[in-house]
Amino acid sequence: MPASPNHLSDSQVTVDAIESFAHATDPRMGHVMGLLVKHLHAFVAESHLTKAEWLKGLEFLTAAAKITTDERNEFSLFSDVMGISSMVDVVSQPPGGTPSSVLGPFHNHDSNVRANGCDLTDGQAGERVWLHGRVLDVHQNPIAHAQIDFWQNADNGLYPAQDSAQDPQNLRCKLVCDEKGEFNLLTIRPHPYTVPTDGPVGALLAASNRNIWRPAHYHVIVSAPGYVGLVTELFPAGSDYIDNDTVFGVRPGLIVDVKPCQDSEVANRFGLTTPFKQVAFDFCLVKQA
Ligand code: BEZ
Ligand code: FE
Q1: Are strands 172-176 and 230-236 parallel, antiparallel or unpaired?
Q2: What CATH class does 80-285 carry?
Q3: What residue ranges line ligand 1, CB within 6 angstroms?
Q4: Domain residues of the chain, as ranges?
Q5: pTM higher than 0.90, yes or no?
Q6: Is pLDDT above 60 for 116?
């Protein structure tokens, strides 16, 4: 059978381009780059990509580079809306732990350390939610003094980085669990919001007639010495867009019920009246290999 120039296995260009990475100093890097070439070439061959389409792709990447700053990374957003960030979560997930989910662009390494049991609401609008639970290992044993890093959007749907009226530390904190691995804090119900749409990714979503919304979520990073760190999110059940997250971050094990709570000690501590709303969730960390 005559060789078809469009068939991947017949392309000397593909073979040569893969081979060009075979002697990388870091063998893993050479392997990953070879696979990337293999799949990108297959995509070009299968789609019969035209020169005009290829140029459009380069223009997209150039526009992404132009809008990217230290505060705003359009490439990271592109990875998110393509489902790549979530696929990396899925394939790198150690078995047995709480599912991970996207980090997103609004994490701040400099969140203040607050006391376990703190009140993050600070008089602002929003339905009060008492968020509490434990950090456990895969055998359900508590991990004493695990660290929680928490952030979310405000009642107007915006993060502090998007809203100069908010204190940069609003609705975010780091805290240390007690010796039983327990944590709790008072916060508000988060809200759905749109990913940034003023760059080339926004134009791509519009041209694709795609949803631009994420469902309501809390962001949490859980860490403890000797355990694989967990970057995840909790999604209140029933939120709009929970079945259509534009960055594909929702996992069944991360959907939480917002339930009424009658605990009068907690109500007194935070100046609430019963019943108030609570979310209870235990995070599970996997030991480092
Ligand atoms: C977020 O959850 O904050 C987010 C995640 C991915 C892209 C944009 C925003
Ligand atoms: Fe978010």
Answers
A1: unpaired
A2: mainly beta
A3: 77, 80, 102, 104-106, 195, 214, 247
A4: 5-49, 80-285
A5: yes
A6: yes
